[in-house]
User: Fold Glycosyltransferase family 15 protein from Agrocybe chaxingu.
Amino acid sequence: MRTLSVSPLRVFLTVTGVIIAIHLIASYSHQEYGRITSLSHITNKFRPSRPPPPVPVQQLPNEQIYSDKRENATFVILCRNNQLWDALRSVKEIEDRFNNRYHYPYVFLNEVPFTEEFKYSLKHIASSEVEFGLIPHDHWFQPAWIDEDRATKARQKMQDDNIIYGGSLSYRNMCRFNSGFFFRHPLMQKYKWYWRIEPDVHFHCDILFDPFRYMQENNKTYAFTISMFEYGATIPTLWEFIKKNPEYLAPNNAMGFISDNGGDSYNLCHFWSNFEIANMDFWRGEAYMKFFEYLEAQGGFYYERWGDAPVHSIGAALFASRDQIQFFDEIGYEHAPYTHCPRQGNNWERGRCSCNPGHNVDSDGISCLNKFQAFMHS
Assistant:
């Protein structure tokens, strides 16, 4: 019998044909196989890789762009254990509107130790470090040298005259502490900047920039959202320091905002200090500390009812340059019964604000904002 010989070429062509047939069948019946084995997919493997397209940058208020950079700053909240739920609401709102992106720490201060429930609850809701501090006795309670008979008569007189907090000793302790001691607390010593928050306040707008960074980069010292008139009966002798110590006046100061007669008297305008962002190195400086030491020696926190708002306002207006004071229209803020709601440019829209611009303390007769803005543009 004759043996048939098969040439290598025929074997090669037969095998190649079978492979191509299988490939075509698989390509049509399995889409993923067809995509992976397509000519375009194979050739792409040998082309140089291209970088992804750039992500568009969002422009934010004050021409500031979000960054991972953080300033040496903290929130500070003075409150009591029975204000737990009010404090929780305040922290939840500032977290939702701002700090869930920036993660600045919190310092809580109290004249008695915080409870474990308080500490657990606030640590749970914050997105950053939370510290709890006990206020030193001498920083909070009325000094022993105060004439208690005189102080008691002063409180009774104000209470009889229906002056808000007129009969309260604890309110006076708080005002004295906020005026001259909070920035000296051991937990605050490591920070330069603070943002004061109170229990049961509201933040009505997304804060799309970092106020600490803005102030640092623009040489600001003090920032506010609400300005109004103080009760004259609570501070009859508060103005005396500057008359006796004019050497501490800063060049280009804001005297024209808080005095209508060149410094002879105080016109009662002040920044509402339950919201403030400021540089603690300014409070720790010579001019302000001399001012506070003078006030402390006069006993007016107890013989009258000096508030930390006019004390801070006089200090900022007289010992800093006028261009170091910042009004943040962008920050929608409420401390009942007053609300600041953004009304400049498109701040309300950009901040997705929930406040009513028509219900705005800035337009109220008690507001000093128009006076401040007119002075700043003079």
About this structure: Confidence is low (pLDDT under 50) at residues 28-36, 38-65.
